[in-house]
């Protein structure tokens, strides 16, 4: 069935849940989606767990694995799983990077671990950190420092102390006359270090000052910092400001010449900027690093193989092949990808198997709309209107055969935990969709609508008897929709279908043969 152009909309974080309570998707006024469900072919897809290459079906989906699966039509073992395997087999400790870093800091210097301290399994896992610290001691390293980024975004919103206690108890048991490990600095992941897609380099600069130079508000411990900031500011973990752990006014773990540094996050979007700061030569100009210590730096994974970020890494990333973009380029299909900064790399870098380079400069057009740097619960519509303006013009221009976008609202606003704002976010997406439908109708193309994982569909944590409802900021395990507008077709409804079935479906609509490595099309 050939029908062009094909337009694919990813409604980030807008999954399908039965419950109405706390379901921002259901509660939103969304005439467009209601119309689409009532009158167009649609089905449900898996977007979590094994269906997207995560270790278990208990793992919620996320944008990296979701966009990877949509963009390559296959299921690859993802970072979370690859690191587990690498640690279980012990291979990680034979890697060139681990060996070099151990040798570098062994004699009287420190080994630092920077990363997201939780078991969210989206960017990192605390068990990976534990394995690295334990082995550091076994290798004869004397001093370990942890720079703990507090989560509250992939895990409950005020759970930081659970993980701080856990890692401190773990380190306490290892500490003895020859070995000393402790938390040296940290802060909320949305305040320091973990910016993505260059939305706000000042976050990375703040992280650099805190982790490397030990410049920031001082506390006797991470716990004291968290408790004090909570009392003073009343914010959730992801928004806690940076802190430095100090004794007698001296930071306990600055990053100095001769030290080794490991970024233990496996996911790339929020790991690249800090990696570039450590790896970058004198031409690095994103912020003034003041003094760049002579350290060896490695990432848990290589986050971008084309750009070699970072140069050294402990685990080989999945080598994602036969991507949809590559295949479409071979057929001369003209492609267009657009989103705002917060999700721009999702429809380009993640979409193309974690590569930021284009396959074919002549066939691919990428457009980024600059995101506002604001708390998104204050602007839940984000840049949905601007994305829609550009996308509709591109659809109607006749210049492209395949267009894709990501509306971030359901996810980015969903992560704030504000139900009211998330409902408005969903409504903004609905309004955008209506305009996209009109453009698609005008040129008689086909519109495919899906989501990469759930988030806005569950804005409350599971209720506990007799306790008030608590906001939920993380993703969900729910299925996501797949809707076809303006094409008569029948869709498969098997329970095991997932995001990796979309690539072949796009190829079918474009009238080209799906790549033999892809999972089956959703068209009957
Ligand atoms: C984030 O990085 O914001 C969250 O950990 C995951 O969100 P995403 O997978 O939707 O980007
Ligand atoms: Co998200």
TrEMBL record:
State which Enzyme Commission number(s) the record gives.
Answer: 5.4.2.12
Organism encoding this protein = Absicoccus porci
Name the pathway: Carbohydrate degradation; glycolysis; pyruvate from D-glyceraldehyde 3-phosphate: step 3/5
Binding-site positions, substrate: 123, 153-154, 189, 196, 267-270, 343
> What residue ranges carry the coiled-coil annotation?
none
Q: What does the record give as the reaction this protein catalyses?
A: (2R)-2-phosphoglycerate = (2R)-3-phosphoglycerate
Query: Which cofactor does the UniProt annotation name?
Result: Mn(2+)
Q: What range(s) does the BPG-independent PGAM N-terminal domain occupy? A: 83-304
Kindly give the CDD domains that the UniProt entry links to this protein.
iPGM
Q: Which Pfam families does the record associate with it?
A: iPGM_N, Metalloenzyme
> What's the stated role of this polypeptide?
Catalyzes the interconversion of 2-phosphoglycerate and 3-phosphoglycerate.
Single biological process term from Gene Ontology:
glucose catabolic process
Q: Tell me which UniProt keywords the record has, alphabetically.
A: Glycolysis, Isomerase, Manganese, Metal-binding
User: Which amino acid positions bind Mn(2+) 2, per UniProt?
Assistant: 12, 63, 452-453
A single GO cellular-component term from the record reads:
cytoplasm
- Protein residues bound to Mn(2+) 1: 411, 415, 475
Catalytic residues of the enzyme: 63
Q: Which residues cross the membrane?
A: none
Name under which the protein is recorded: 2,3-bisphosphoglycerate-independent phosphoglycerate mutase
Q: Which residues form the Metalloenzyme domain?
A: 5-513
Q: Which family does it belong to?
A: Belongs to the BPG-independent phosphoglycerate mutase family.
């Amino acid at each position: 069935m050939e029908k062009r152009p094909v337009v694919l909309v990813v409604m980030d974080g807008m999954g399908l849940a039965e419950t109405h309570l706390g379901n921002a998707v259901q509660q939103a006024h969304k005439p467009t989606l209601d119309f689409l469900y009532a009158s167009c072919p649609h089905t449900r897809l898996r977007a979590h767990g094994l269906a997207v290459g995560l270790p278990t079906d208990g793992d919620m989906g996320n944008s990296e694995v979701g966009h990877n699966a949509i963009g390559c039509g296959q299921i690859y073992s993802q970072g979370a799983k690859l690191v587990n395997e690498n640690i279980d087999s012990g291979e990680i400790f034979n890697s060139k990077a681990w060996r070099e870093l151990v040798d570098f800091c062994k004699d009287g210097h420190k080994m630092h671990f920077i990363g997201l301290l939780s078991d969210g399994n989206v960017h990192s896992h605390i068990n990976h950190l534990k394995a690295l610290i334990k082995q550091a001691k076994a290798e004869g390293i004397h001093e370990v420092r942890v720079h703990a980024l507090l989560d509250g975004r992939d895990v409950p919103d005020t759970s930081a102390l659970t993980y701080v206690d856990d890692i401190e108890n773990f380190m306490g048991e290892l500490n003895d006359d020859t070995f000393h490990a402790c938390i040296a600095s940290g802060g909320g992941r949305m305040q320091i270090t973990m910016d993505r897609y260059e939305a706000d380099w000042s976050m990375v600069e703040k992280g650099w000052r805190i982790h490397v130079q030990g410049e920031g508000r001082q506390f006797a411990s991470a716990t004291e910092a968290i408790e004090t900031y909570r009392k003073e500011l009343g914010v959730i973990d992801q928004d806690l400001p940076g802190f430095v752990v100090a004794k007698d006014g001296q930071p306990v773990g600055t990053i100095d010449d001769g030290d080794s540094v490991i970024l233990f996050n496996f996911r790339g979007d929020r790991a690249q900027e800090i990696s570039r700061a450590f790896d970058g030569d004198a031409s690095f100009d994103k912020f003034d690093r003041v003094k760049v210590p002579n350290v060896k730096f490695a990432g848990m994974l290589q986050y971008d193989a084309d750009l070699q970020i970072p140069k050294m890494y402990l685990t080989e990333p999945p080598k994602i092949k036969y991507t949809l973009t590559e295949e479409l380029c071979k057929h001369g299909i003209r492609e267009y990808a657009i989103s705002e900064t917060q999700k721009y790399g999702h429809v380009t870098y993640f979409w193309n198997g974690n590569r930021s380079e284009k396959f074919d400069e002549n066939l691919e057009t990428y457009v980024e709309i600059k995101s506002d740097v604001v708390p998104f619960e204050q602007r839940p519509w984000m840049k949905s209107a601007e994305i829609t303006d550009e996308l509709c013009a591109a659809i109607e221009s006749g210049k492209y055969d395949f267009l894709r976008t990501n509306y971030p609202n359901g996810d980015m606003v969903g992560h704030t935990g504000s139900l009211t704002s998330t409902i408005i976010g969903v409504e903004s997406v609905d309004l955008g969709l209506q305009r996209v439908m009109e453009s698609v109708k005008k040129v008689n193309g086909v519109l495919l609508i899906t989501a990469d994982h759930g988030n806005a569909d569950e804005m409350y944590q599971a209720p506990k008897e007799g306790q008030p409802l608590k906001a939920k900021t993380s993703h969900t395990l729910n299925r996501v929709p797949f809707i076809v507008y303006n094409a008569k077709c029948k869709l498969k409804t098997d329970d095991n279908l997932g995001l990796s079935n979309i690539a072949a479906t796009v190829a079918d609509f474009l009238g080209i043969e799906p790549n033999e490595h892809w999972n089956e099309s959703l068209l009957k």
